[in-house]
Amino acid sequence: DVKVTQSSRYLVKRTGEKVFLECVQDMDHENMFWYRQDPGLGLRLIYFSYDVKMKEKGDIPEGYSVSREKKERFSLILESASTNQTSMYLCASSSPPLLAGDTQYFGPGTRLTVL
Amino acid sequence: QKEVEQNSGPLSVPEGAIASLNCTYSDRGSQSFFWYRQYSGKSPELIMSIYSNGDKEDGRFTAQLNKASQYVSLLIRDSQPSDSATYLCAVYPSGNTGKLIFGQGTTLQVKP
């Protein structure tokens, strides 16, 4: 079974703090993703990494950065947390899609509250 | 912009009925299609995948794909209250970017 873990289930931070969200997968997947999910807005892709040290901006990268130093670990960084970054953050991983298409597997999510 | 559209619902069905969830997509070159289930406060979990036109059955779930009409559907037979969740349709578009395109999700309520 694919296992994707995230460092925290719930996190409360103050405005202006630097926040690190960690994600680890154990399936040797090349691709890793960070999404945020808000009511009525669905899943929105923040950043995507297709290899170690490689990253690509998603739909809403502003205010976020990422780091992937090892294949199994993908970190999301909020440089200076703001209240509008209060959200559910979901990490996912996958192999590159082949003809039959592997898919993404999600971690349990981190519910971040910025006060 | 490659899009995946779903009716947000809520779709309400009585226990034991068939629930039908629909999804349309804009990229005609899409090859792989997935249904995820997401319980409130939890992360999405994969329940069905389909790659070829026609039906694919897995227990009480049947995924249907019609590439000519660009829609994919999920049927849940003998719906149970435990099926109450949001169902996300996801598509790998053409171009092999590795990024899934998700619909907004349909909320299903199964009433006892």
Low-confidence runs of at least 5 consecutive residues of chain A: none
Biggest sheet of chain B, in brief? 6 strands, mixed
For the largest interface, the chains and their residue counts are: A-B, 23 and 22 residues
Q: In total, how many beta strands of chain B?
A: 11
Number of helices of chain B: 0
Beta-strand content estimate of chain B: over 45%
Radius of gyration of chain B, taken over Cα atoms and rounded to an integer in Å: 13 Å
Total beta strands of chain A: 11
Give me the secondary-structure category of chain A. mainly beta
Tell me the distance between the termini of chain B. Answer: 40 Å
- Helical content of chain B, roughly? under 10%
Mean pLDDT of chain A: 92
Q: Count of helices of chain A? A: 0
Uncertain ranges of chain B? none
N-to-C series of helices and strands of chain B: EEEEEEEEEEE
N/C terminus separation of chain A: 37 Å
Mean pLDDT of chain B: 94
Helical/strand content category of chain B: mainly beta
Name the overall outline of chain A: globular
Strand content of chain A: over 45%
Shape of chain B: globular
Structure keywords:
heterodimer, A: mainly beta, about 0% helix, B: about 110 residues, mainly beta, six-stranded mixed sheet, five-stranded antiparallel sheet, about 55% strand
